[in-house]
Amino acid sequence: MEMGLVSKDSSWWVFTLPAFFGSQRLLDGYVFFSFVMAVVSLALLTWTFAVGGVAWKNGRNRKGQMPIPGPRGLPVFGSLLTLSRGLAHRSLATMAWSGGNTQLMAFSLGSTPVVVASDPHTAREILTSPHFADRPIKQSAKSLMFSRAIGFSPNGTYWRLLRRIASSHLFSPRRISAHEVGRQRDCTIMLRNIEAEQKLHGFVSPRKHLQFAALNNIMGGVFGKRYDGENDVTELKELKEMVKEGFELLGAFNWSDYLPWLSYFYDPFRINERCQKLVPRVRKLVKCIIEDHRHRDSEKLSDNADFVDVLLSLEGEEKLQEDDMVAVLWEMIFRGTDTTALLTEWIMAEMVLHPDVQAKLHSEIHGAVGSSGSITDADVAKLPYLQAVVKETLRIHPPGPLLSWARLSTSDVQLSNGMLIPANTTAMVNMWAIAHDPRVWEDPLKFRPERFLEADVDVRGSDLRLAPFGAGRRVCPGKNLGLVTVSLWVAKLVLHFEWVPETAHPLDLNEVLKLSCEMKHPLCAVAVGRGGVPF
Ligand code: HEM
Questions:
Q1: Whole-number Cα distances in Å, 67 to 45, 93, 113, 382, 409
Q2: What is the pTM assigned to this prediction?
Q3: Is 29 exposed, middle or buried (0-12, 13-18, 19+ CB in 10 A)?
Q4: Which of 160, 335, 408 has most ligand 1 atoms within 8 Å of its beta carbon, as the pocket-test mutant?
Q5: Any bridge partners for residue 427, and if so which?
Q6: What is the interface pTM, i.e. ipTM, of the complex?
Q7: What are the E-state strand segments in 221-363?
Q8: Among 221, 410, 489, 492, which one has the highest count of C-beta atoms within 10 angstroms of its own C-beta?
Q9: CB of 461 sitting under 6 A from ligand 1
Q10: Cα torsion at 171, 172, 176, 178 (round to 10°)?
Q11: What is the pLDDT of residues 191-216, one digit of tens each?
Protein backbone atom coordinates (compact mmCIF):
# COMPACT_ATOMS: atom_id res chain seq x y z
CA MET A 1 0.00 0.00 0.00
CA GLU A 2 1.26 3.53 -0.79
CA MET A 3 2.65 5.20 2.31
CA GLY A 4 3.16 8.77 3.50
CA LEU A 5 5.05 11.55 1.85
CA VAL A 6 8.29 11.25 3.70
CA SER A 7 9.25 7.99 2.16
CA LYS A 8 8.23 8.71 -1.43
CA ASP A 9 11.03 8.16 -3.90
CA SER A 10 11.40 11.56 -5.54
CA SER A 11 14.97 11.16 -6.70
CA TRP A 12 14.33 9.99 -10.29
CA TRP A 13 15.16 13.41 -11.70
CA VAL A 14 18.78 13.21 -10.54
CA PHE A 15 19.38 10.44 -13.03
CA THR A 16 17.76 12.26 -15.95
CA LEU A 17 19.90 15.39 -15.61
CA PRO A 18 22.87 14.33 -17.76
CA ALA A 19 20.58 13.47 -20.66
CA PHE A 20 18.69 16.72 -20.23
CA PHE A 21 21.85 18.81 -20.45
CA GLY A 22 23.23 16.74 -23.30
CA SER A 23 26.16 15.62 -21.21
CA GLN A 24 27.41 12.12 -20.55
CA ARG A 25 28.71 12.97 -17.12
CA LEU A 26 26.66 14.42 -14.30
CA LEU A 27 29.68 16.12 -12.81
CA ASP A 28 30.64 17.99 -15.95
CA GLY A 29 31.94 21.35 -14.56
CA TYR A 30 29.55 23.65 -16.40
CA VAL A 31 26.49 21.49 -15.76
CA PHE A 32 27.38 21.15 -12.12
CA PHE A 33 27.95 24.89 -11.63
CA SER A 34 24.68 25.81 -13.37
CA PHE A 35 22.82 23.24 -11.36
CA VAL A 36 24.18 24.52 -8.04
CA MET A 37 23.44 28.14 -8.97
CA ALA A 38 19.90 27.27 -10.02
CA VAL A 39 19.24 25.41 -6.78
CA VAL A 40 20.70 28.19 -4.63
CA SER A 41 18.69 30.94 -6.40
CA LEU A 42 15.50 28.94 -6.25
CA ALA A 43 16.00 28.14 -2.60
CA LEU A 44 16.70 31.79 -1.72
CA LEU A 45 13.71 32.98 -3.69
CA THR A 46 11.25 30.54 -2.15
CA TRP A 47 12.68 31.11 1.31
CA THR A 48 12.33 34.90 1.07
CA PHE A 49 8.61 34.68 0.44
CA ALA A 50 7.60 31.66 2.46
CA VAL A 51 6.25 32.11 5.99
CA GLY A 52 6.71 28.71 7.63
CA GLY A 53 9.74 28.00 5.45
CA VAL A 54 10.42 26.43 2.07
CA ALA A 55 7.82 23.70 2.34
CA TRP A 56 5.10 26.35 2.68
CA LYS A 57 5.88 28.20 -0.54
CA ASN A 58 3.13 29.40 -2.92
CA GLY A 59 0.95 30.63 -0.05
CA ARG A 60 0.27 27.13 1.22
CA ASN A 61 -0.24 28.60 4.70
CA ARG A 62 -2.78 31.18 3.45
CA LYS A 63 -5.48 28.91 2.10
CA GLY A 64 -7.93 29.65 4.94
CA GLN A 65 -9.41 32.96 6.15
CA MET A 66 -6.61 33.08 8.74
CA PRO A 67 -3.02 32.41 7.63
CA ILE A 68 -1.00 29.91 9.66
CA PRO A 69 1.96 31.80 11.15
CA GLY A 70 5.40 30.30 11.55
CA PRO A 71 9.17 30.73 11.35
CA ARG A 72 10.93 30.90 8.00
CA GLY A 73 13.86 28.73 9.06
CA LEU A 74 16.81 28.34 6.69
CA PRO A 75 16.72 28.00 2.91
CA VAL A 76 16.40 24.32 1.90
CA PHE A 77 16.60 23.05 5.48
CA GLY A 78 13.77 25.06 7.07
CA SER A 79 13.79 24.38 10.83
CA LEU A 80 15.69 21.08 10.54
CA LEU A 81 18.78 22.36 12.32
CA THR A 82 16.75 23.61 15.30
CA LEU A 83 14.85 20.38 15.72
CA SER A 84 17.49 17.79 14.87
CA ARG A 85 19.30 18.28 18.17
CA GLY A 86 18.29 18.97 21.71
CA LEU A 87 14.75 18.67 22.96
CA ALA A 88 12.38 19.30 20.06
CA HIS A 89 9.31 19.65 22.31
CA ARG A 90 10.97 22.40 24.32
CA SER A 91 12.32 24.23 21.25
CA LEU A 92 8.89 24.12 19.59
CA ALA A 93 7.19 25.28 22.79
CA THR A 94 9.56 28.25 23.07
CA MET A 95 8.97 29.13 19.39
CA ALA A 96 5.18 28.89 19.79
CA TRP A 97 5.00 30.79 23.09
CA SER A 98 7.38 33.58 22.03
CA GLY A 99 5.62 34.13 18.70
CA GLY A 100 2.11 33.79 20.17
CA ASN A 101 1.57 30.83 17.84
CA THR A 102 0.20 28.28 20.27
CA GLN A 103 -2.98 27.60 18.28
CA LEU A 104 -1.03 26.47 15.27
CA MET A 105 2.44 27.10 13.91
CA ALA A 106 3.73 26.18 10.47
CA PHE A 107 7.34 25.24 9.84
CA SER A 108 9.39 23.25 7.39
CA LEU A 109 11.49 20.19 7.98
CA GLY A 110 13.40 20.24 4.70
CA SER A 111 10.75 19.67 2.05
CA THR A 112 8.12 18.47 4.56
CA PRO A 113 5.44 21.01 5.60
CA VAL A 114 4.64 20.61 9.29
CA VAL A 115 2.15 22.20 11.69
CA VAL A 116 2.27 21.95 15.44
CA ALA A 117 -0.61 22.62 17.83
CA SER A 118 0.24 23.74 21.35
CA ASP A 119 -3.23 24.39 22.68
CA PRO A 120 -5.95 21.92 23.71
CA HIS A 121 -8.60 23.18 21.33
CA THR A 122 -6.60 22.88 18.10
CA ALA A 123 -5.05 19.64 19.37
CA ARG A 124 -8.53 18.14 19.68
CA GLU A 125 -9.54 19.29 16.20
CA ILE A 126 -6.45 17.66 14.69
CA LEU A 127 -6.37 14.41 16.64
CA THR A 128 -10.07 13.69 16.27
CA SER A 129 -10.36 14.67 12.61
CA PRO A 130 -10.93 11.69 10.29
CA HIS A 131 -8.67 13.52 7.81
CA PHE A 132 -5.75 13.16 10.20
CA ALA A 133 -5.97 9.40 10.69
CA ASP A 134 -2.78 8.61 8.73
CA ARG A 135 0.80 8.95 9.84
CA PRO A 136 3.91 9.96 7.88
CA ILE A 137 6.36 7.09 8.03
CA LYS A 138 10.07 7.36 8.73
CA GLN A 139 12.42 5.43 6.46
CA SER A 140 13.68 3.34 9.39
CA ALA A 141 10.14 2.37 10.44
CA LYS A 142 9.34 1.38 6.87
CA SER A 143 12.53 -0.66 6.53
CA LEU A 144 11.80 -2.37 9.85
CA MET A 145 8.40 -3.54 8.51
CA PHE A 146 6.35 -1.18 10.68
CA SER A 147 4.29 -0.03 7.68
CA ARG A 148 2.37 -3.30 8.12
CA ALA A 149 1.90 -2.86 11.88
CA ILE A 150 -0.86 -0.91 13.65
CA GLY A 151 0.96 2.36 14.28
CA PHE A 152 1.97 3.13 10.70
CA SER A 153 -0.65 1.36 8.60
CA PRO A 154 -2.62 3.89 6.60
CA ASN A 155 -6.18 4.40 7.75
CA GLY A 156 -8.13 1.72 5.87
CA THR A 157 -9.47 -1.84 6.01
CA TYR A 158 -6.18 -3.45 7.06
CA TRP A 159 -5.54 -0.96 9.88
CA ARG A 160 -9.15 -1.28 11.13
CA LEU A 161 -8.80 -5.06 11.15
CA LEU A 162 -5.58 -4.88 13.20
CA ARG A 163 -7.12 -2.42 15.69
CA ARG A 164 -10.18 -4.64 16.07
CA ILE A 165 -8.12 -7.78 16.68
CA ALA A 166 -5.86 -5.98 19.16
CA SER A 167 -8.75 -4.32 21.02
CA SER A 168 -10.69 -7.50 21.49
CA HIS A 169 -7.82 -9.93 22.09
CA LEU A 170 -4.97 -8.00 23.67
CA PHE A 171 -6.33 -4.83 25.23
CA SER A 172 -9.85 -5.77 26.31
CA PRO A 173 -10.52 -5.47 30.09
CA ARG A 174 -11.00 -9.27 30.25
CA ARG A 175 -7.60 -9.97 28.68
CA ILE A 176 -5.87 -7.33 30.77
CA SER A 177 -7.18 -8.88 33.96
CA ALA A 178 -6.40 -12.42 32.75
CA HIS A 179 -2.76 -11.36 32.40
CA GLU A 180 -2.56 -9.93 35.93
CA VAL A 181 -0.83 -13.07 37.20
CA GLY A 182 2.05 -12.44 34.79
CA ARG A 183 2.22 -8.76 35.70
CA GLN A 184 2.47 -9.68 39.39
CA ARG A 185 5.13 -12.30 38.71
CA ASP A 186 7.28 -9.87 36.68
CA CYS A 187 6.97 -7.35 39.51
CA THR A 188 7.97 -9.85 42.18
CA ILE A 189 11.12 -10.75 40.23
CA MET A 190 11.87 -7.05 39.84
CA LEU A 191 11.49 -6.43 43.58
CA ARG A 192 13.85 -9.33 44.36
CA ASN A 193 16.43 -8.02 41.90
CA ILE A 194 16.16 -4.54 43.39
CA GLU A 195 16.66 -5.94 46.89
CA ALA A 196 19.71 -7.89 45.69
CA GLU A 197 21.27 -4.86 43.99
CA GLN A 198 20.64 -2.73 47.05
CA LYS A 199 22.43 -5.30 49.22
CA LEU A 200 25.33 -5.54 46.79
CA HIS A 201 25.96 -1.84 46.01
CA GLY A 202 24.15 0.08 48.71
CA PHE A 203 21.97 1.78 46.07
CA VAL A 204 19.81 0.83 43.08
CA SER A 205 19.47 1.99 39.50
CA PRO A 206 15.93 0.82 38.76
CA ARG A 207 15.90 1.38 34.98
CA LYS A 208 17.36 -1.97 33.94
CA HIS A 209 15.02 -3.82 36.32
CA LEU A 210 12.02 -1.90 34.99
CA GLN A 211 13.06 -2.51 31.39
CA PHE A 212 13.50 -6.23 32.00
CA ALA A 213 10.12 -6.45 33.75
CA ALA A 214 8.43 -4.49 30.95
CA LEU A 215 10.04 -6.64 28.26
CA ASN A 216 9.05 -9.85 30.02
CA ASN A 217 5.56 -8.51 30.59
CA ILE A 218 5.01 -7.79 26.89
CA MET A 219 6.78 -11.01 25.87
CA GLY A 220 4.47 -12.93 28.22
CA GLY A 221 1.22 -11.32 27.04
CA VAL A 222 2.13 -11.19 23.37
CA PHE A 223 4.42 -14.18 22.78
CA GLY A 224 3.54 -16.33 25.79
CA LYS A 225 7.24 -16.44 26.65
CA ARG A 226 9.07 -15.13 29.70
CA TYR A 227 12.79 -15.13 30.40
CA ASP A 228 14.28 -15.75 33.82
CA GLY A 229 17.77 -14.51 33.08
CA GLU A 230 19.31 -17.92 33.80
CA ASN A 231 17.83 -20.19 31.15
CA ASP A 232 17.45 -19.00 27.55
CA VAL A 233 20.42 -16.69 28.16
CA THR A 234 21.48 -16.63 24.51
CA GLU A 235 17.98 -15.94 23.19
CA LEU A 236 17.40 -13.23 25.80
CA LYS A 237 20.71 -11.58 24.92
CA GLU A 238 19.84 -11.68 21.22
CA LEU A 239 16.37 -10.23 21.90
CA LYS A 240 17.75 -7.43 24.09
CA GLU A 241 20.31 -6.53 21.43
CA MET A 242 17.67 -6.48 18.71
CA VAL A 243 15.33 -4.32 20.78
CA LYS A 244 18.16 -1.90 21.60
CA GLU A 245 19.18 -1.66 17.94
CA GLY A 246 15.54 -1.18 16.87
CA PHE A 247 15.04 1.60 19.41
CA GLU A 248 18.19 3.36 18.21
CA LEU A 249 17.16 3.14 14.58
CA LEU A 250 13.58 4.26 15.15
CA GLY A 251 14.61 7.03 17.52
CA ALA A 252 17.47 8.42 15.39
CA PHE A 253 16.86 11.73 13.67
CA ASN A 254 17.31 10.82 10.02
CA TRP A 255 17.87 13.88 7.84
CA SER A 256 16.96 11.90 4.73
CA ASP A 257 13.38 11.58 5.98
CA TYR A 258 13.00 15.28 5.19
CA LEU A 259 15.59 15.75 2.44
CA PRO A 260 15.28 12.50 0.46
CA TRP A 261 18.12 13.41 -1.95
CA LEU A 262 20.52 13.51 1.00
CA SER A 263 20.47 9.73 1.37
CA TYR A 264 22.79 9.49 -1.68
CA PHE A 265 25.51 11.45 0.10
CA TYR A 266 24.93 11.32 3.83
CA ASP A 267 23.82 8.55 6.17
CA PRO A 268 25.92 9.09 9.32
CA PHE A 269 24.02 6.50 11.35
CA ARG A 270 24.08 3.93 8.46
CA ILE A 271 20.35 3.61 9.04
CA ASN A 272 19.50 1.70 5.85
CA GLU A 273 22.37 -0.71 6.22
CA ARG A 274 21.60 -1.41 9.88
CA CYS A 275 17.87 -1.88 9.20
CA GLN A 276 18.69 -4.39 6.49
CA LYS A 277 20.81 -6.36 8.92
CA LEU A 278 18.25 -6.24 11.70
CA VAL A 279 15.16 -7.35 9.76
CA PRO A 280 16.29 -10.94 9.03
CA ARG A 281 17.26 -11.40 12.69
CA VAL A 282 13.82 -10.20 13.82
CA ARG A 283 12.07 -12.43 11.28
CA LYS A 284 14.08 -15.43 12.42
CA LEU A 285 13.33 -14.95 16.11
CA VAL A 286 9.63 -14.11 15.74
CA LYS A 287 9.01 -16.84 13.15
CA CYS A 288 10.65 -19.34 15.45
CA ILE A 289 8.23 -18.36 18.24
CA ILE A 290 5.28 -18.56 15.81
CA GLU A 291 6.41 -22.05 14.73
CA ASP A 292 6.61 -23.16 18.39
CA HIS A 293 3.00 -22.06 18.82
CA ARG A 294 1.92 -23.90 15.66
CA HIS A 295 3.31 -27.14 17.07
CA ARG A 296 1.54 -26.79 20.40
CA ASP A 297 -1.66 -28.79 20.94
CA SER A 298 -4.42 -26.71 19.45
CA GLU A 299 -6.87 -26.03 22.20
CA LYS A 300 -9.74 -23.62 22.45
CA LEU A 301 -8.52 -20.07 23.01
CA SER A 302 -8.68 -19.29 26.69
CA ASP A 303 -8.64 -15.79 28.20
CA ASN A 304 -4.99 -15.98 29.06
CA ALA A 305 -3.95 -17.19 25.62
CA ASP A 306 -1.18 -15.05 24.25
CA PHE A 307 -1.43 -12.79 21.19
CA VAL A 308 0.42 -15.22 18.91
CA ASP A 309 -2.23 -17.86 19.69
CA VAL A 310 -4.90 -15.31 18.82
CA LEU A 311 -3.31 -14.32 15.52
CA LEU A 312 -2.83 -17.97 14.55
CA SER A 313 -6.46 -18.74 15.31
CA LEU A 314 -7.82 -16.12 12.88
CA GLU A 315 -9.62 -17.50 9.88
CA GLY A 316 -10.91 -16.28 6.53
CA GLU A 317 -10.58 -12.58 5.77
CA GLU A 318 -9.07 -11.91 9.17
CA LYS A 319 -6.16 -14.30 8.64
CA LEU A 320 -2.85 -12.43 8.50
CA GLN A 321 0.13 -13.31 6.35
CA GLU A 322 3.18 -14.41 8.26
CA ASP A 323 5.19 -11.23 7.58
CA ASP A 324 2.26 -9.10 8.75
CA MET A 325 2.12 -11.12 11.96
CA VAL A 326 5.83 -10.57 12.48
CA ALA A 327 5.34 -6.80 12.02
CA VAL A 328 2.36 -6.60 14.41
CA LEU A 329 4.05 -8.69 17.11
CA TRP A 330 7.37 -6.88 16.80
CA GLU A 331 5.65 -3.49 17.08
CA MET A 332 4.11 -4.40 20.44
CA ILE A 333 7.58 -4.81 21.93
CA PHE A 334 8.53 -1.32 20.79
CA ARG A 335 5.34 0.38 21.86
CA GLY A 336 4.82 -1.47 25.10
CA THR A 337 8.22 -1.76 26.76
CA ASP A 338 10.02 1.57 26.99
CA THR A 339 6.90 3.71 27.58
CA THR A 340 5.94 1.65 30.64
CA ALA A 341 9.48 1.38 32.04
CA LEU A 342 10.38 5.03 31.49
CA LEU A 343 7.15 6.37 32.95
CA THR A 344 7.68 4.26 36.08
CA GLU A 345 11.24 5.56 36.36
CA TRP A 346 10.02 9.19 36.14
CA ILE A 347 7.43 8.49 38.86
CA MET A 348 10.05 6.97 41.15
CA ALA A 349 12.35 9.95 40.53
CA GLU A 350 9.57 12.32 41.59
CA MET A 351 9.02 10.15 44.70
CA VAL A 352 12.68 10.53 45.63
CA LEU A 353 12.48 14.30 45.09
CA HIS A 354 9.23 14.64 47.06
CA PRO A 355 9.42 12.55 50.24
CA ASP A 356 6.15 14.12 51.46
CA VAL A 357 4.30 12.81 48.39
CA GLN A 358 5.96 9.42 48.78
CA ALA A 359 4.93 9.21 52.44
CA LYS A 360 1.34 10.14 51.59
CA LEU A 361 1.28 7.55 48.81
CA HIS A 362 2.74 4.86 51.05
CA SER A 363 0.18 5.57 53.71
CA GLU A 364 -2.65 5.27 51.16
CA ILE A 365 -1.35 1.94 49.82
CA HIS A 366 -0.51 0.52 53.23
CA GLY A 367 -3.91 1.59 54.52
CA ALA A 368 -5.59 -0.33 51.71
CA VAL A 369 -3.64 -3.59 51.84
CA GLY A 370 -2.16 -3.67 55.33
CA SER A 371 0.94 -5.76 55.81
CA SER A 372 -0.25 -8.65 53.63
CA GLY A 373 1.86 -7.26 50.80
CA SER A 374 -0.60 -8.56 48.25
CA ILE A 375 -1.92 -5.73 46.17
CA THR A 376 -4.03 -6.34 43.10
CA ASP A 377 -5.20 -4.37 40.05
CA ALA A 378 -8.57 -4.06 41.76
CA ASP A 379 -6.97 -2.49 44.87
CA VAL A 380 -4.94 -0.13 42.72
CA ALA A 381 -8.04 1.12 40.93
CA LYS A 382 -9.41 2.27 44.31
CA LEU A 383 -6.38 4.38 45.26
CA PRO A 384 -7.07 7.98 44.22
CA TYR A 385 -3.75 9.42 45.37
CA LEU A 386 -1.81 6.79 43.40
CA GLN A 387 -3.83 7.66 40.29
CA ALA A 388 -3.13 11.33 40.94
CA VAL A 389 0.63 10.68 41.23
CA VAL A 390 0.63 8.79 37.91
CA LYS A 391 -1.35 11.57 36.20
CA GLU A 392 0.86 14.33 37.58
CA THR A 393 3.96 12.51 36.30
CA LEU A 394 2.31 12.03 32.89
CA ARG A 395 1.69 15.78 32.88
CA ILE A 396 5.21 16.84 33.82
CA HIS A 397 7.04 14.09 31.91
CA PRO A 398 4.79 12.81 29.09
CA PRO A 399 6.69 9.81 27.59
CA GLY A 400 5.76 11.07 24.12
CA PRO A 401 5.98 14.87 24.50
CA LEU A 402 5.10 15.31 20.82
CA LEU A 403 2.75 12.30 21.01
CA SER A 404 5.40 9.95 19.61
CA TRP A 405 4.57 9.69 15.95
CA ALA A 406 2.87 12.45 14.00
CA ARG A 407 -0.27 12.50 11.88
CA LEU A 408 -0.66 13.25 8.18
CA SER A 409 -3.60 15.13 6.60
CA THR A 410 -5.23 13.22 3.78
CA SER A 411 -7.23 16.24 2.57
CA ASP A 412 -7.56 19.96 3.33
CA VAL A 413 -8.75 20.42 6.92
CA GLN A 414 -10.66 23.55 7.92
CA LEU A 415 -10.19 24.52 11.57
CA SER A 416 -12.73 26.47 13.59
CA ASN A 417 -10.30 29.41 13.98
CA GLY A 418 -10.34 30.03 10.22
CA MET A 419 -7.00 28.37 9.45
CA LEU A 420 -6.85 25.68 6.80
CA ILE A 421 -4.31 22.87 6.93
CA PRO A 422 -3.66 21.68 3.38
CA ALA A 423 -3.61 18.00 2.42
CA ASN A 424 -0.29 16.17 2.87
CA THR A 425 0.77 18.21 5.88
CA THR A 426 2.45 16.53 8.82
CA ALA A 427 0.75 17.52 12.08
CA MET A 428 2.17 17.30 15.57
CA VAL A 429 0.61 18.03 18.92
CA ASN A 430 3.00 19.42 21.50
CA MET A 431 1.50 17.76 24.57
CA TRP A 432 4.48 18.85 26.63
CA ALA A 433 3.77 22.53 25.77
CA ILE A 434 0.07 22.17 26.66
CA ALA A 435 0.89 20.43 29.93
CA HIS A 436 3.39 23.18 30.86
CA ASP A 437 1.29 26.16 29.80
CA PRO A 438 0.34 28.42 32.77
CA ARG A 439 -2.88 29.35 30.94
CA VAL A 440 -3.92 25.70 31.04
CA TRP A 441 -2.38 24.51 34.35
CA GLU A 442 -1.86 26.53 37.50
CA ASP A 443 1.78 26.42 38.65
CA PRO A 444 2.66 24.08 35.78
CA LEU A 445 6.26 23.49 36.91
CA LYS A 446 5.23 22.34 40.37
CA PHE A 447 4.83 18.59 41.02
CA ARG A 448 1.51 18.61 42.87
CA PRO A 449 -0.60 15.42 42.48
CA GLU A 450 -3.34 17.01 44.63
CA ARG A 451 -4.48 18.99 41.58
CA PHE A 452 -5.96 15.73 40.25
CA LEU A 453 -7.88 15.14 43.48
CA GLU A 454 -9.36 18.63 43.28
CA ALA A 455 -10.55 18.16 39.69
CA ASP A 456 -11.06 14.87 37.91
CA VAL A 457 -9.17 14.85 34.61
CA ASP A 458 -9.41 11.92 32.24
CA VAL A 459 -6.01 11.21 30.68
CA ARG A 460 -7.22 8.67 28.14
CA GLY A 461 -7.96 11.09 25.33
CA SER A 462 -11.20 12.89 26.18
CA ASP A 463 -9.62 15.94 27.85
CA LEU A 464 -6.98 17.50 25.65
CA ARG A 465 -5.42 19.47 28.52
CA LEU A 466 -3.68 16.19 29.27
CA ALA A 467 -3.79 13.50 26.61
CA PRO A 468 -0.45 11.65 26.87
CA PHE A 469 -1.95 8.69 24.99
CA GLY A 470 -3.20 10.85 22.12
CA ALA A 471 -6.86 11.02 21.12
CA GLY A 472 -9.26 10.14 18.33
CA ARG A 473 -9.25 6.99 16.26
CA ARG A 474 -5.46 6.65 16.45
CA VAL A 475 -5.40 6.97 20.25
CA CYS A 476 -3.03 4.53 21.98
CA PRO A 477 -4.81 1.15 22.17
CA GLY A 478 -2.43 0.07 24.97
CA LYS A 479 -3.39 2.94 27.32
CA ASN A 480 -5.31 0.82 29.83
CA LEU A 481 -2.67 -1.90 29.86
CA GLY A 482 0.05 0.74 30.30
CA LEU A 483 -1.78 2.49 33.16
CA VAL A 484 -2.65 -0.74 34.98
CA THR A 485 0.94 -1.99 34.75
CA VAL A 486 2.58 1.26 35.84
CA SER A 487 0.12 1.79 38.72
CA LEU A 488 0.60 -1.75 40.07
CA TRP A 489 4.38 -1.58 39.87
CA VAL A 490 4.63 1.85 41.50
CA ALA A 491 2.29 0.70 44.28
CA LYS A 492 4.53 -2.30 44.98
CA LEU A 493 7.79 -0.35 44.70
CA VAL A 494 6.54 2.15 47.28
CA LEU A 495 4.90 -0.46 49.51
CA HIS A 496 8.09 -2.51 49.84
CA PHE A 497 10.80 0.16 49.81
CA GLU A 498 11.33 3.68 50.94
CA TRP A 499 13.15 5.49 48.15
CA VAL A 500 15.70 8.04 49.34
CA PRO A 501 18.33 10.12 47.51
CA GLU A 502 21.78 8.61 46.91
CA THR A 503 24.38 11.26 47.64
CA ALA A 504 27.03 9.95 45.24
CA HIS A 505 24.54 10.03 42.32
CA PRO A 506 22.47 13.20 42.73
CA LEU A 507 19.08 13.06 41.08
CA ASP A 508 19.00 14.86 37.76
CA LEU A 509 15.69 15.51 35.99
CA ASN A 510 17.29 16.42 32.65
CA GLU A 511 15.64 14.74 29.69
CA VAL A 512 16.79 13.15 26.48
CA LEU A 513 14.36 12.68 23.61
CA LYS A 514 14.76 9.34 21.87
CA LEU A 515 11.81 7.25 20.79
CA SER A 516 10.34 8.33 24.13
CA CYS A 517 11.46 11.09 26.45
CA GLU A 518 13.63 9.55 29.13
CA MET A 519 15.79 10.64 32.05
CA LYS A 520 19.16 11.65 30.62
CA HIS A 521 20.93 10.14 33.61
CA PRO A 522 19.14 7.02 34.91
CA LEU A 523 17.74 7.32 38.40
CA CYS A 524 19.96 6.06 41.24
CA ALA A 525 18.47 5.89 44.73
CA VAL A 526 18.69 3.98 47.97
CA ALA A 527 15.86 1.46 48.31
CA VAL A 528 15.38 0.99 52.06
CA GLY A 529 13.38 -2.19 52.67
CA ARG A 530 10.28 -1.47 54.75
CA GLY A 531 10.45 -4.99 56.24
CA GLY A 532 7.71 -7.30 57.31
CA VAL A 533 5.82 -7.16 54.02
CA PRO A 534 6.43 -10.23 51.79
CA PHE A 535 6.99 -9.55 48.06
C1 HEM B 1 2.70 4.71 29.44
C2 HEM B 1 2.44 4.01 28.44
C3 HEM B 1 2.11 4.51 27.04
C4 HEM B 1 2.07 5.77 26.51
C5 HEM B 1 2.34 7.10 27.22
C6 HEM B 1 1.70 5.65 25.11
C7 HEM B 1 1.53 6.72 24.23
C8 HEM B 1 1.10 6.59 22.92
C9 HEM B 1 0.84 7.70 22.03
C10 HEM B 1 1.00 9.18 22.40
C11 HEM B 1 0.42 7.21 20.84
C12 HEM B 1 0.01 8.01 19.60
C13 HEM B 1 -1.49 8.33 19.73
C14 HEM B 1 -2.06 9.28 18.70
O15 HEM B 1 -1.52 9.44 17.59
O16 HEM B 1 -3.11 9.90 19.00
C17 HEM B 1 0.44 5.76 20.95
C18 HEM B 1 0.10 4.89 19.94
C19 HEM B 1 0.17 3.52 20.06
N20 HEM B 1 0.47 2.81 21.20
FE21 HEM B 1 0.89 3.54 23.03
N22 HEM B 1 1.53 4.33 24.82
C23 HEM B 1 1.77 3.59 25.97
C24 HEM B 1 1.69 2.23 26.12
C25 HEM B 1 1.41 1.34 25.10
C26 HEM B 1 1.39 -0.10 25.25
C27 HEM B 1 1.61 -0.85 26.56
C28 HEM B 1 1.12 -0.61 24.00
C29 HEM B 1 1.01 -2.03 23.56
C30 HEM B 1 1.51 -3.07 24.12
C31 HEM B 1 0.95 0.52 23.09
C32 HEM B 1 0.66 0.40 21.75
C33 HEM B 1 0.43 1.46 20.89
C34 HEM B 1 0.09 1.30 19.48
C35 HEM B 1 -0.04 -0.02 18.72
C36 HEM B 1 -0.09 2.59 18.96
C37 HEM B 1 -0.45 2.97 17.52
C38 HEM B 1 -1.96 3.19 17.39
C39 HEM B 1 -2.41 3.51 15.98
O40 HEM B 1 -1.70 4.21 15.24
O41 HEM B 1 -3.51 3.11 15.60
N42 HEM B 1 1.15 1.67 23.78
N43 HEM B 1 0.84 5.41 22.23
A1: 20, 20, 14, 48, 17
A2: 0.90
A3: exposed
A4: 335
A5: 115, 407
A6: 0.99
A7: none
A8: 489
A9: no
A10: -130
A11: 999 999 999 999 999 999 999 999 99
